[in-house]
Amino acid sequence: MSDAKTARSHRTVPLPRMAVDAMKAHLRDFPADGPECWIFTAPQGGPVVYTHFMDGSWRPAARRPA
Questions:
Q1: N or C: which end of the chain has fewer CB within 10 A?
Q2: Residue 29 falls within a domain, yes or no?
Q3: Is the residue at 3 inside a domain?
Q4: 21/14 Cα distance (integer angstroms)
Q5: DSSP per residue over 6-59, as a string?
Q6: Mean pLDDT of all residues in the chain?
Q7: CA separation (Å) from 7 to 10, 13, 28, 35, 49?
Q8: Any one Gene Ontology biological process term (predicted)?
Q9: CA atoms of 60 and 47, how far apart (whole Å)
Q10: Is the pLDDT of residue 57 over 70?
């Protein structure tokens, strides 16, 4: 990762154990090629496009009954 623009921009974000375990499993199954690589990628390997994610995954999942 690159340096933050200011000292106040630097954050430590606590994650619940479930999220840490899920991230470890994801990185084990989809290893990054280096420290500057995307963690979550589109099917072609590039960054996830917001509108594609929202229209193709998030909104359809949100419409499903619980």
A1: C
A2: yes
A3: no
A4: 13
A5: SGGG-------HHHHHHHHHHHHHS--SSTTS-SSB-TTSSBPPHHHHIIIIIH
A6: 88
A7: 6, 15, 32, 21, 29
A8: DNA recombination
A9: 20
A10: yes
For residue range 5-42, list pLDDT tens digits in order.
887 888 889 999 999 999 999 999 988 888 888 888 88
- Residue 52's domain spans which residues? 14-63
Residue 38 token pair:
């995307």
Domains identified in the chain, total number = 1
Tell me, yes or no, whether 7 lies in a domain: no
Predicted TM-score of the model (pTM): 0.58
Sign of the CA dihedral running 1, 20, 50, 45: positive
